[in-house]
């Protein structure tokens, strides 16, 4: 069983567990949209970025795509990784409709939760004008929705085809 360290906390997980799941076992909540335990890893949303400090993998990587290995030292709070997660959420919010009162999610939106938890809900500088749009969908938001849906659909279809669910 691989042993790794996540934010100074030693973790031992079963072979085949990815770093995102290892962090979850210790109690860390790492934002992610495209990963589901039953479907596996896609790595498309870029939200589960962590800094791999020591071990076989180094640098900022998507934790859902990296299997836990012996000797890994991982940081969830590294400034570069946290900044990347914040910028991805900000980018998603910039191109997302802001019609929350009439949205089908009815207040159960992970994007809202991640936005507030990551501190991206605070408007800053020149971007604030973009955040004030209400109820409009931009061509980019359609692209992003279609992109994430296509990745998840393709991954799910492949899992069904090869009966790995």
Architecture overview:
The chain has 165 residues and is of the alpha+beta class. It has helices at residues 19-26, 79-94, 110-117, 128-131, 139-161, and strands at 3-6, 9-12, 49-54, 59-62, 72-75. It has a five-stranded mixed β-sheet, sandwiched between helices. Strand 1 (3-6) and strand 2 form a beta hairpin. It starts with a strand and ends with a helix. Residues 123-143 have low confidence and may be disordered.
Short structural summary:
With 165 residues, this protein is of the alpha+beta class. The chain contains five helices and five strands, in the order E-E-H-E-E-E-H-H-H-H.
Shape: elongated
SSE order: EEHEEEHHHH
Domain module tally:
2
Binned, the helix content reads 25-40%
Which class of the largest domain in CATH terms?
Answer: Alpha Beta
**Low-confidence parts lasting 5 or more residues at pLDDT below 50?**
123-143
Could you say what the CATH topology of the largest domain is called? Ubiquitin-like (UB roll)
Content of β-strand: 5-15%
Would you tell me the structural class of the helices and strands? alpha+beta
What is the number of beta strands?
A: 5
Distance between the termini: 23 Å
> How many strands, what sense, and barrel or not for the largest sheet?
5 strands, mixed
Task: Give the SSE map.
Elements: E1 3-6, E2 9-12, H1 19-26, E3 49-54, E4 59-62, E5 72-75, H2 79-94, H3 110-117, H4 128-131, H5 139-161
Parallel strand pairs: 1-5
Antiparallel strand pairs: 1-2, 3-4, 3-5
């Amino acid at each position: 069983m691989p042993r790794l360290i996540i934010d100074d906390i030693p973790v031992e997980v079963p072979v085949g567990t990815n770093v995102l799941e290892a962090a979850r076992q210790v109690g860390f909540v790492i934002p992610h949209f495209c990963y589901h335990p039953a479907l596996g890893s896609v790595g498309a949303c870029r939200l589960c970025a962590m800094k791999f400090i020591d071990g076989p993998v180094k640098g900022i990587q998507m934790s859902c795509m990296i299997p836990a290995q012996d000797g890994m030292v991982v940081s969830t709070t590294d400034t570069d990784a946290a900044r990347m997660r914040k910028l991805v959420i900000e980018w998603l919010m910039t191109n997302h409709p802001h019609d929350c009162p009439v949205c089908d999610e009815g207040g159960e939106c992970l994007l809202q939760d991640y936005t507030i938890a990551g501190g991206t809900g605070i408007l800053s500088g020149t971007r604030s004008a973009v955040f004030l749009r209400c109820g409009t969908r931009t061509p980019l938001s359609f692209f992003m929705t279609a992109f994430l849906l296509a990745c998840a659909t393709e991954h799910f279809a492949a899992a069904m085809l090869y009966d790995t669910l």
